[in-house]
């Protein structure tokens, strides 16, 4: 899969566009800037938006080509992002480090998804925010008739509301919904899509004095 993403991101154009994901951008705009982590960040569109909005941005992806384009976009927009090359199992941060976590079309193998989500949730401070958008299992009916709608073709890599709730048990949700919407993100997210959107806050623990 790494070779697949390297080949896709080698294109001169930004294949998912240079503008941030709309749900991510609208959710982030209401938060006080702090320190944010963006896993599977690809070509850097969301990282650059966050940096321009005043956030200290940390991101990673296993595609070297994606990283190069993310850094190129950041240079063009005159912002700094701390972008690492690495796969989920190889990337580590201190627990409770980040004020926000953005998972935008970050789809993992079904066998690893819950462990990865819980690992990422541990990097978030109590009271920190999760912003997630990804394809739901119902998306297969859209991608079957329109390949440009994008998304994994393996149903196990797609999301359900129940799975998100099980993966992130220590969150209080302001938004947790499955919607049909039209995407216009570069060349590979075009057209009707079935989406899971989640915006929530990690519960604060009550520590004894």
TrEMBL record:
UniProt keyword Lipid metabolism, yes or no: no
Gene Ontology MF annotations: methyltransferase activity
Superkingdom of origin: Bacteria
Stretches that traverse the bilayer: none
Methyltransferase domain segment(s): 40-128
Any GO BP: methylation
Organism per entry: Cyclobacterium lianum
InterPro entries for the chain: Methyltransf_25, SAM-dependent_MTases_sf
Protein name as it appears in the record: Methyltransferase domain-containing protein
Cross-referenced SUPFAM superfamilies: S-adenosyl-L-methionine-dependent methyltransferases
Keyword terms of this UniProt record: Methyltransferase, Transferase
Gene3D superfamilies per the UniProt record, alphabetical: Vaccinia Virus protein VP39
């Amino acid at each position: 899969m790494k070779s697949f993403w390297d080949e896709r991101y080698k294109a001169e154009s930004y294949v998912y566009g240079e503008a941030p994901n709309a749900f991510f951008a609208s959710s982030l705009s209401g938060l006080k800037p702090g320190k944010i982590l963006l896993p599977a960040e690809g070509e850097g569109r969301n990282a650059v938006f966050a940096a321009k909005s005043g956030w200290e941005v940390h991101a990673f992806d296993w595609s070297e080509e994606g990283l190069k384009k993310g850094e190129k976009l950041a240079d063009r927009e005159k912002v700094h992002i701390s972008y690492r090359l690495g796969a989920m199992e190889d990337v580590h941060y201190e627990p409770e480090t980040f004020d926000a976590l953005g998972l935008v079309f970050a789809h993992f193998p079904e066998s690893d998804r819950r462990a990865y989500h819980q690992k990422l949730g541990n990097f978030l401070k109590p009271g920190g925010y999760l912003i997630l958008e990804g394809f739901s299992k119902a998306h297969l009916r859209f991608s079957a008739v329109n390949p440009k709608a994008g998304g994994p073709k393996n149903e196990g890599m797609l999301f359900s509301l129940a799975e998100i709730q099980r993966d992130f048990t220590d969150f209080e949700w302001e938004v947790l919904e499955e919607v049909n919407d039209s995407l216009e993100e570069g060349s590979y997210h075009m057209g009707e899509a079935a989406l899971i959107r989640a915006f929530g806050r990690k519960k604060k623990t009550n520590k004894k004095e």
